[in-house]
Structure formats: C-alpha cells, structure tokens
Design a protein that fits this description.
PhoU; cytoplasm; phosphate transport; mainly alpha; Methane Monooxygenase Hydroxylase, Chain G, domain 1; 7 helices; Phosphate-specific transport system accessory protein PhoU; transport
Length: about 220
C-alpha cells in the first residue's frame, strides 16, 4: 500500500471512531433524559440502538487488526492504530452503561420516585456528557495539555457521585416507599461515574498517541 493510501486508511479509521463516539454521546444524553423524564419509549430506543454501537466497535476492531497484520505499521502509525483499538473499546463500554441506565428506566415504572434526587442525577448526566464530548474533541486535536485538563475534570463527576449518594440516603429515610427507586439511583450513579472514567481513559490514549507513554491520569 502506498504511503498516501495508508494515511487515508488511518484517517478513515479515526473518522469512524469519532462517528462512533458521537453516536454514544447521543446515547448517553438520551438515556439520562429518559430516566429523569420517565420516558420508557425513549429508553427502549436507547436499548435497541446499543446493538449499532456494538457493531461499530467490532468493525473498528477488525479494521485496526487488519491494518496491523497487513501493513505492520511502526512508531507513530502503530500508536494511531492502537489508540483507535483501545479507545473504541472504552467508547463501547460507555454505550453499554447508557443502555443500562435505559434499562433502569424500564424497571422504575410505577415506583415511588424522589424528584430532588432525579434533578441532581440530571445535573450529573449533563456534566458527564460535557466530559465525554470534550474527550472526543481532544482525541481529534490530540492536545496533550487539554487531555490532562479534561481528565482532571473527572473529579467533578466523582463529587456528584458522592453527593447524590448521600442525598439519596437522606431522602429514602424520609420516604421508605422509595427504597426500590433508591437502589436504581445508586446503579445509575455508578453507570454515570464509570462513563466519566472511560472518558478519562480516552484522554490517556491521547497522551499515549502523542508521547508513546502509557500513563494514568
């Protein structure tokens, strides 16, 4: 394969990854919106669409491994392929967690809810969406300094996680009938927190792409 053709293949690979990431970003947004608005139809849409994400990840993995096997790239080119291979796995897991939030929406039908907790979950969901969007953008720009900055913002997500857990416990004490909802809230909080962790992973892969170093941000 000529060098120009090879570079085109790499660019196509990265564009496919970004497209997959954008789709997952939409899944995260829809899943949180479905949960806090009790929209079971929207939740079902998220669950059904998860298969599309899985298919995209499989295609990216297949193409990445094909490039490694047939072209045997070295140095920065190899890092580009490995970055897509690893980052696409992280994005696919984000999609899994978005689907899990949607499934929680289905399970919550008819249960006693706690509006003040759901309002805070909505806030956390928006913060997670911003972090994922920023991580995808820094993947495109490959700005290492920005990658560090975005990874540090995961602390905001962690703070939401702890604060909303504490709030949920307090509110369940006041409303014992919402105990089932409380269990689902804790699950959704965990899913959102993990999505933030995977966004941080993407930032780590950006650092690897530019420096060749695998570090924990």
């Amino acid at each position: 394969m000529l060098r120009t053709k090879f570079e085109e293949e790499l660019d196509k690979l990265h564009n496919q990854f970004y497209s997959m990431g954008t789709e997952v970003l939409g899944q995260i947004n829809r899943s949180v919106r479905a949960f806090v608005s009790h929209d079971r139809d929207l939740a079902k849409n998220v669950i059904e669409n998860d298969e599309v994400i899985n298919t995209d990840e499989t295609k990216l993995e297949k193409k990445s491994l094909e490039i490694i096997a047939l072209q045997q790239p070295v140095s920065i080119d190899l890092r580009k392929v490995i970055t897509v291979l690893k980052a696409s796995s992280d994005v696919e897991r984000m999609g899994d967690h978005a689907a899990s939030i949607a499934k929680a929406t289905i399970r919550m039908k008819g249960e006693e809810r706690i509006p003040v907790v759901e309002e805070k979950i909505n806030e956390m969901g928006k913060a997670v969406k911003v972090m994922v969007e920023d991580a995808l953008n820094v993947y495109i720009t490959a700005d290492v300094d920005k990658a560090y900055e975005i990874a540090a913002s995961d602390e905001i997500i962690d703070n939401y996680f702890r604060d909303i857990q504490n709030l949920a416990v307090e509110e369940i004490r006041k409303t014992p009938d919402a105990a089932f909802a409380g269990k689902e809230y804790f699950q959704v909080l965990m899913f959102l927190e993990r999505i933030g962790d995977y966004a941080k992973n993407i930032c780590e892969w950006v650092v690897y792409l530019k420096t060749g170093k695998i570090i924990e941000l």
